[in-house]
Amino acid sequence: xxxxxxxxxxxxxxxxxxxxxxxxxxxxxxxxxxxxxxxxxxxxxxxxxxxxxxxxxxxxxxxxxxxxxxxxxxxxxxxxxxxxxxxxxxxxxxxxxxxxxxxxxxxxxxxxxxxxxxxxxxxxxxxxxxxxxxxxxxxxxxxxxxxxxxxxxxxxxxxxxxxxxxxxxxxxxxxxxxxxxxxxxxxxxxxxxxxxxxxxxxxxxxxxxxxxxxxxxxxxxxxxxxxxxxxxxxxxxxxxxxxxxxxxxxxxxxxxxxxxxxxxxxxxxxxxxxxxxxxxxxxxxxxxxxxxxxxxxxxxxxxxxxxxxxxx
Amino acid sequence: xxxxxxxxxxxxxxxxxxxxxxxxxxxxxxxxxxxxxxxxxxxxxxxxxxxxxxxxxxxxxxxxxxxxxxxxxxxxxx
Lengths: 312, 78
Ligand SMILES: [Fe+2]
Ligand SMILES: [Fe+2]
Hints:
The complex is a heterodimer. By secondary structure, chain A is mainly α. Chain A has one domain (6-311): Ferritin, CATH 1.20.1260.10. Chain A is built from twelve helices and four strands, in the order αααααααααββββααα. In chain A, the strands form two sheets. A two-stranded antiparallel sheet of chain A has the order 1-2. A two-stranded antiparallel ribbon of chain A has the order 3-4. In chain A, strand 3 (261-264) and strand 4 (269-275) form a beta hairpin. In chain A, helix 5 (117-141) packs antiparallel against helix 9. Chain A starts with 5 loop residues before the first helix and ends with a helix. By secondary structure, chain B is an alpha+beta fold. Chain B has one domain (6-75): Ubiquitin-like (UB roll), CATH 3.10.20. Helix content of chain B is 19%, strand content 28%. Chain B contains two helices and three strands, in the order ββαβα. In chain B, strands 2-1-3 form a three-stranded antiparallel β-sheet, with helices on one face. The relative contact order of chain B is 0.26. The chains are: A mainly alpha, B alpha+beta. The A-B interface holds A 20-23, 72, 76, 79-80, 83-84, 86-89, 92-93, 146, 149-150, 152-153, 156-157 and B 1-2, 22-27, 40-45, 64-66, 68-74. One fe (ii) ion (FE2) binds next to helix 5 and helix 6 of chain A.
């Protein structure tokens, strides 16, 4: 290591230099990359138990096949991130099996239960859209060659997840009645969750190593706006209400509540008229959502039983 | 990586006349499971041909670094 200084590497990657191995990195670069890949791997991995929970509600064998295919994809995406981490000297077994569940870096949204088919497809429509927004940006801009290549597969598959979500949201909405109401109920709690997904606003976050080292290209607010510009018109088209609208003059999406706000995880309900500080958001994230421990446990539960059989 | 696992680099090509591309990597204790994991994990295309090879079968020719960003601590495991 230390082929370059931080400043030299920052300048080089902004000029298009692609990092291919540890020899090209600085300690700061490596640290930022490890954080990014851990968030990525944990998010992919923890989407699997959340989706699995709702897949039991699939309305037919065909839909169950497509839902489990999505889960299988997510496990594959997690594998890509964790493999890259191993190549940076991180111990995957420690990450997966020995970390306290509270230390997983997946977004708060994947600490929540998904309890029916409408919630699953809305998650595909909103959360997989968030995934595409974030990882699409990484794919276009990252200075880390192995990640850029690994994300080709991820992007192709995420587009399928998104299509699955949007097609099914439309189908349920067109059916009307209770089906439509279930989509509205799902969007009611998942939409603000998606807004929060992109993290602190730019004005609160001054220094960003991931941007400096070109591990991503867009800021939190730019990514959030990209997501909003896809999700809000979709909901408008489906006549699903969201607390946001497109400003016809600027074409930007504007929120109709003072973000961030209080959330009641037991009731799955946002208190849109109770604004909170980002410190309070961090406290809620750190306290974790209701399914955090159980989702990690589901992923771990069979490991030792099979290992025991192999050793017997 | 679990005890006894090796790294298997995965190469594939979509159709005849295509070049092989390095598309990823799996961990498995033997080539048979490596083949199964590779085929099931990298199922994003209808590949004409897919092959796996252990990472430690690759040797750099013109560069000092190991290919596929092999980490020194991972080297001991392959
Ligand atoms: Fe994914
Ligand atoms: Fe996905």
